[in-house]
Each structure stands twice: as C-alpha cells, then as structure tokens.
Amino acid sequence: MNQLFAIPQLKDIRHLLPTRSGQSYKKTTLEQKTHIIIHHSLTKTGSAFAFANYHVSKGWPGIGYHFVIEQDGTIHFCNDLETISYHVGNHNTYCIGVCLTGDFRTQQPTNEQKQSLRTLYKKLVNILPNYKDVKGHNELKGYEWKQCPCFNYAQVLTEKENIEMKEEVKLYTVERGDTLWTISQKTGVSVKTLLRLNPHVDPRALQPGQQIIIEKLIKKEEVKAPSQPSNQTPKQQNPIEQLISKLPNKVLQYGDRGEDVRILQQALNMINFKCGAEDGVFGQKTLDAVKRVNLMFSGGNKNGMYDKKTKNYIISKLREKMK
User: Fold this and answer.
1) To which CATH superfamily is domain 2-158 assigned?
2) Most confident listed range (64-78, 142-156, 293-307)
3) pLDDT given for residue 114 in this prediction
4) What pTM, to 2 d.p., does this model score?
5) How many CA atoms lie within 13 A of 151 on its CB side?
6) 3-class DSSP string for 13-58
7) DSSP letters of 255-311?
C-alpha cells in the first residue's frame, strides 16, 4: 500500500467524500482483487466529489470507484482496495475501478491523465498479489453495450513515456576579493567540486560579476505530445447497434438451437428480460423470457415465439439504453 502513497500526484480523500448514512460497502481481501477496470465519467467535467454525491443520491453507500483521475492528472484515492464498491455489477467483488474524468465519446484523456493512469496501473500491478488483467468496462460480460471507457486504454498503458533529461545549473556571482576558497566557505561547496564544475575558469583570475557554477541538477521533464483534437477522435462502433444489426429476422421458438438463438438470448439479458445462459438453446428460460416480452405489447405471440413484433419491441428497448 505504501507504493500508492509514493505517487506524487495521488491524494487520499477516502474519509473526505460524502457517504450514505448508516450504509457501507462490503469488503473482501486484497487477494480476491484480480482485475483493474477502466471507466470514463461520461461527463465533460466533474470530480470525485461530484461523482460521490451522484452515487449517494442513487442510494449507494458511497462513490463507486476506487480511484478517480482528474483532468489535471490528480489521482484521487476514493475507496480501500478491498472495498466491493458498485461499478461493474456482478463483477464488483474481484475488480478495482479506475475512472478518468471526461466524456471520451467526443474528448480524449489529457496527457496528464494518461501519465497518471500509467503510473497508477504499474503500482497496482505490483500491489495486487493475484493480479490477472486490466479491462475496459464494456469488455466485461453483460456490459458489452456500455460506451465505456471509449478510448484505447491499452495503447495508453503501453506508450513509452516521453521523458527528456534537462540539465539545470545553480550559479554564484563573484564579488570583489573572492577566491575559490572564500566562495567555498560561503556556499559549502568544496574547492575541488568548484574546480570540477568550472574546468574553463582560471581560479587566479576571478573577476567581480563573473558567474561560476556551484551545482548541477539533472531533471526529468515530460515532453507533452499535442492534444488530439476531438474531431480526430476515432469513431467507435456502438455495441448495441452491432447487436441490433445481428438480431434474427426469422421466427424462433422452443427447441431451436444455434447462433440466432444465442444473439436473441444476449439481447434479452441486455434489456433485463433475463433468460440465463447465452448458450444458443431455446429452452424453458428463454421461452419464459420471450413470453414476458410478448406480454408487453398488443398482438404479442402468447405461445412464446420470437417473431417480427418481438424483434421490434426488443430493438426499441435496446435503443432506450443508448439515450
């Protein structure tokens, strides 16, 4: 855990964020946390405090993320790593949530956010004893329709840091009567070091106003790449549109098997008409789910068959999720 606090831009706000009175998240062990999940906030602006207020207003015990990376690169530490907070549904137990503030459907993460994400990721990989993988929110089963995180986090994590080594020097201005020995007494820098730092200076010919080096500093400085304009943001194919385009046109009924049934099952689960496993078998659970769908509109097939009307209703519910 101490590795986290070694990150200069990390701020621990775990006990400062709003929480819901009388409620708290469950905890697990650090060994159970195996995955790091990347999110974006879906808001052009915001902060960990704003997200915490929103989550509490939804009835949650507190903020859903473990970390929020703000647009200036500040990493806000929001929940203990062992906390089972709400950010990926059934996957919460084994996942740690990292949210970058921004709407990456139209924006790109700032260079500061990218740098902080790389730094935090490297630390977490070392801290988690059973770390397995990092994923985007929409890469988890059941959340394929989510437009999150909407940027190529894998590329960001593998980018090499653009670091330039810069040399800075600290100077001393020679005064009347100065010698290297008196300068050494004033600055605490040995005569030997002064000679090494100033090989072209004649110690017997020092002049008032002359500047000599008393210290050299080597600094690492990030060379920032120009921000990518939003109009160059790659257009990402919407997973819901993908699913809609695959919905079968033919009639499906109890006993059918195959890819068309599997796609139907995926759509049913996505609109919360749960049918269990997406195994391509039109069994009893799928039949029950289709019957429930058909009861939602007039003229629905009471026998639980999937037909054109069923398809149109499912499409309407899927499109609602895109709003």
Assistant:
1) Peptidoglycan recognition protein-like (3.40.80.10)
2) 64-78
3) 95
4) 0.54
5) 28
6) CCCCCCCCCCCCCCECCHHHCCEEEEEECCCCCCCHHHHHHHHHHC
7) T-BSHHHHHHHHHHHHTT---S--SSB--HHHHHHHHHHHTTSTT--TT--B-HHHH
CATH number of 163-222: 3.10.350.10
pLDDT category of residue 229 using cuts at 50, 70 and 90: very low
Check pLDDT > 80 for residue 217: no
Q: Report the C-alpha gap between 71 and 138 in whole angstroms.
A: 22
Structure tokens at 137: 């929110």
How far apart CA 117 and CA 157 sit, in angstroms, is 7
Residue 81 sits at the vertex; the CA angle it makes with 74 and 62, to the nearest 5 degrees, is 75
Contact 84, 93 (CB under 8 A): yes
94-108, 143-157, 219-233: segment of lowest average pLDDT: 219-233
Report the distance separating Cα 227 and Cα 166, nearest Å: 23
| Residues forming CATH 3.40.80.10 domain(s) in the chain | 2-158
CATH 1.10.101.10 placement within the chain:
239-321
Residues 55-107 pLDDT 10s: 999 999 999 999 999 999 999 999 999 999 999 999 999 999 999 999 999 99
Residues of the chain within CATH 3.10.350.10 domain(s) are 163-222
The separation between CA 169 and the C-alpha centre of its own chain, rounded to angstroms, equals: 38
